[in-house]
Write a structure and sequence with these properties.
The protein is built from 8 helices and 26 strands. It is α+β, with helices and mostly antiparallel strands. The longest helix has 38 residues.
Length: 459
């Protein structure tokens, strides 16, 4: 009989639980949603909006229409910043009444609504939604408002003001370019002094080659970085709505001109002027933005002046993930790490067997930093290492040494050049490397050595 009582209790418990869930949770959520809907000022789908007008009491009106895409048509015709417009339309559709003030006001002047501070109209097909914003309430946390659908005066949260009070420069597109990064097939820079850098992408889609300088090996990441920096460039300010007026803004001739060739055969042009003393911005014009603008002058540092700025000068021309073992000798201390898993390393002991290294991230960090390290220039000859080098590293792939780096002692401070020898299947020769680059490599090795000693002491 006990099992029957247990079933009865279980059924009762489920009934009570179901009752509580439905009336205390589901019904409350439904009521909260109903209350939210009742407080909504407008019922519209932002994605179906096709026209927006912003009419301030003071300042120029702004009008946008949706053709095949959104376009600003007043006060000038130009492209729209999609994210800014999405934010405005989203806030407009979600706007809620905080509190009703007067159901049927006889005089709108006390609320600043006789001549609204701001009027916003959104058209959605055949429906037009209009919001009037007036003065702030005495507390300052809300604004008086009206809509075409409500005769009452009500309050909306003051936070909406910054979202709705948008002018031309808030809603226009600020990105200078619309090209897709992967579409770029050629890059050419021409400086005011006549120096030219020109590279193009080969048919393999990976290798960049310098025009007329095929012997120079180009590092793809450097070209891609230039393209990325241009692609994300945004206007700080708008100088002239007529992009043909170049000379008055120091853009004809420009300080530097950049040409990009795209996969479809199209060309993109970008011009930059000179930086004025003490300024952090520079005048620019892009063939993909209809205006003369100001941009951050730091972009000039990203544009190559010589082909050497794009040259492959890596100290570590290997794929980090291919390296199976790393051996080093520094400060008369030798060690060898063996890859156990993609991100896990083991340290070889005297018996030649690798033991798991708890601080494997230090070996990975060493490889990452090496991947970013570059030499300054190639030395006059590839003569062998003179005597015992100050430091040495060997990198193994497929059980064989794929690359050896050996270097002289770096200066204790500063960036004076030090010789480094590269030998291996892919690179060979003597190069000059800044001392601070070598010091960083050595510090990474010492960090691995120190962590290894701590691991051994704790085991």
């Amino acid at each position: 009989m006990k099992w029957r009582h247990s079933i009865i209790y279980l059924v009762l418990l489920l009934l009570v639980g179901g009752y509580f869930y439905y009336f205390e949770i589901v019904r409350k959520e439904q009521k909260a949603e109903t209350d939210r809907e009742a407080k909504r000022v407008f019922h519209l789908n932002p994605e179906k909006a096709d026209s927006v007008e912003i009419l301030p009491r003071e300042g120029k009106p702004v009008r946008l229409i949706k053709e095949d895409r959104w376009i600003l048509v007043e006060p000038v015709r130009t492209d729209v910043d999609a994210s800014a417009l999405d934010g405005l339309l989203g806030a407009f559709s979600r706007l809620q009444v905080e509190r009703e003030i007067v159901a049927a006001p006889e005089d709108l002047k006390p609320y600043g609504l006789e001549t609204p501070v701001l009027r916003i109209r959104v058209r959605e097909g055949g429906n037009r939604h209009e919001l009037l914003l007036g003065d702030r309430n005495p507390v300052g946390d809300a604004r008086y408002a009206r809509s075409e659908a409500k005769t009452s005066v009500f309050l909306v949260a003051e936070g909406n003001w910054a979202v709705f009070n948008k002018g031309l420069n808030d809603l226009r597109r600020r990105s200078l370019f619309t090209f897709a990064v992967d579409d770029v097939r050629g890059l050419r820079t021409e400086w005011e002094d006549g120096s030219v850098v020109q590279v193009h992408l080969l048919d393999d889609g990976k290798t960049w080659q310098a025009d007329g300088q095929g012997a120079v090996k180009i590092r793809p990441g450097k070209v891609e970085n230039v393209i990325q920096q241009l692609h994300w460039l945004r206007a700080i300010a708008f100088v002239d709505e007529d992009p043909s007026k170049l000379a008055p803004h120091g853009l004809d001739p420009p300080h530097v001109k950049v040409d990009l060739k795209l996969s479809g055969g199209e060309s993109v042009e970008f011009r930059l002027g000179r930086v004025e003393d003490g300024k952090k911005d520079v005048t620019a014009v892009s063939s993909q933005l209809h205006a003369v603008v100001k941009v951050n002058s730091g972009v000039l540092e990203d544009i190559p002046k010589t082909i050497s700025a794009l040259e492959e000068r890596s100290l570590f021309p290997l794929d980090r993930d291919d390296v199976e073992e790393v051996a080093w000798k520094l400060d008369n201390v030798e060690g060898q790490a063996v890859r156990l898993e993609p991100n896990k390393w083991g340290m070889k002991g005297k018996d030649g067997k690798p033991r798991e290294f708890k601080d494997s991230w230090r070996v990975n960090s060493l490889l990452w930093d090496l991947g970013d390290a570059e030499y300054r220039e190639k030395a006059d000859s590839g003569e062998p290492v003179a005597g015992e080098p100050h430091g040495r590293m060997d990198f193994f792939i497929g059980g064989k040494i794929a690359l050896t780096l050996a270097w002289d002692k770096p200066a204790p401070e500063g960036a004076a050049a030090v010789h480094l020898w590269m030998t291996g299947s892919r690179e060979a020769g003597r190069v000059r490397v800044a001392s601070d680059v070598i010091r960083k490599i050595e510090q990474n090795i010492r960090n691995v050595i120190e962590a290894t000693e701590k691991n051994q002491a704790g085991s």
